[in-house]
Structures are given as structure tokens and as C-alpha cells.
Design brief:
5 helices, mainly alpha, globular, 3-stranded antiparallel β-sheet
């Protein structure tokens, strides 16, 4: 696993850790079942505070990207489907809300594209 933290980038270090691990897990660079470094170990290797890495790991676990198995360690989650299920639920909620607001497909999709562009910076 290779991570690079750019302090000058303007993106919080924990978010950089989260995004890079998520992308590597999604792309298969970090295969399912791959054991991640301990919070302390990764923090030391990146020159970050342990709380910064812990925050990234908590966010990744909440997103279903990684799973913690107690003292056995933290691993790339066996399924990416948890994130897909959560996204499908959010999409369904959004679609229902757009319908209630009287928006058509074109307006609803435009709003999603705008939100994605804003989120991706």
C-alpha cells in the first residue's frame, strides 16, 4: 500500500488517507482481505498523528471499505456491495424527493452531476 500525503494540497490529511485507501480498494490495488497497517504504524510511516489515521479508518469502516477484526487487525472488506447498497438507498430517496418536488429526470440528473462535481472538487 502506497500513500502520499500532501500537506500543502488544502485537503485534510485524514481525507487524503481515506480517499487513497478507498480508491486502492476499489481498483483492486488493495485486494479483498488485504491486511492494513495498524493505525499507529501507518501514522508513523506517514508522519501523521495516530488520531488522524484513526479518523480515516473509522470513515472507511463506516463506508464498508474496510473491516476491523479486533486484535486480528484491519482488512479490506470482503464486499464493496455495502457501499453500493447504501448508494442505491440514497438514490432511491433522492428520486422520491425529486418527484415530490415536481422535478423531471433532466433536472434531477443535472442536480446530481453538479453535486458530484462539487464533491470531487
Amino acid at each position: 500500500m502506497t500513500l502520499k500525503i500532501d500537506i500543502v494540497e488544502g485537503v485534510a490529511p485524514y481525507e487524503q488517507v481515506r480517499a487513497q485507501i478507498a480508491e486502492q480498494a476499489r481498483s483492486g490495488t488493495l485486494p479483498v482481505g488485504h491486511r492494513l497497517p495498524t493505525v499507529r504504524g501507518l501514522a508513523e510511516s506517514l508522519g501523521l498523528a495516530a488520531n488522524t489515521v484513526a479518523k480515516a479508518y473509522r470513515a472507511l469502516e463506516a463506508d464498508g471499505v474496510i473491516e476491523t477484526r479486533g486484535r486480528n487487525g484491519t482488512f479490506v472488506a470482503a464486499t464493496g456491495s455495502a457501499a453500493e447498497r447504501e448508494l442505491a438507498t440514497a438514490a432511491q430517496t433522492y428520486a422520491e424527493r425529486a418527484r415530490r418536488l415536481g422535478l423531471g429526470e433532466r433536472e434531477a440528473l443535472a442536480a446530481v452531476r453538479d453535486a458530484l462535481r462539487a464533491a470531487n472538487g
